[in-house]
Amino acid sequence: MASLPIIVAPDPRLKVVCEPVETVDDAVRKVLDDMLETMYDAPGIGLAAPQVGVQKRMIVADISRDEEGHNAYIMVNPEIVWESEEVLDYEEGCLSLPEHYAEVTRPERVQIKFLDRNGKEREIKVSGLLSTCIQHEIDHLDGVLFVDHLSNLRRSLILRKLQKFKKQQQKKAVGA
Ligand code: NI
User: Fold this and answer.
1) What is the mean pLDDT of the chain?
2) N or C: which end of the chain has fewer CB within 10 A?
3) How far is the CA of 71 from the centre of ligand 1 (A)?
4) Ion ligand 1: residues, Cβ under 5 Å
């Protein structure tokens, strides 16, 4: 397994609608394993393939705390097939928008259809933080970031700050 670099917004690679995975083979499993390692390393509770430059419909999530041990969700071609009318407000963050957080309102419970690591079709119902997290990751597969759920003003403010942050990082990298 390898930990991969995470793309920071604003970046056109985070705005792409990703393609479905055709076959869950060893190459796909390798990417999924690398995504898991990248997420744990960051550390974060979820990661979508486009965040590491792979424009395929794959996500990983794990909301358990370290002391509870890992409980990873690995989903290929995830699809929301049902959502509750009840909603949940949650202060979201994103590994592609470091240091920025904002409250986003989403359905409290969703049912997801997906392929597991072995390519087997599965369906689960999730609620609370795990539901928020998985919906956030599925958004990534359609080029949607959590800031896209905010007002234009709020979104452009955060993206401008990140642009500035990226420029500073680049300067540091070249030693300027
Ligand atoms: Ni994210």
Assistant:
1) 95
2) C
3) 19
4) 94
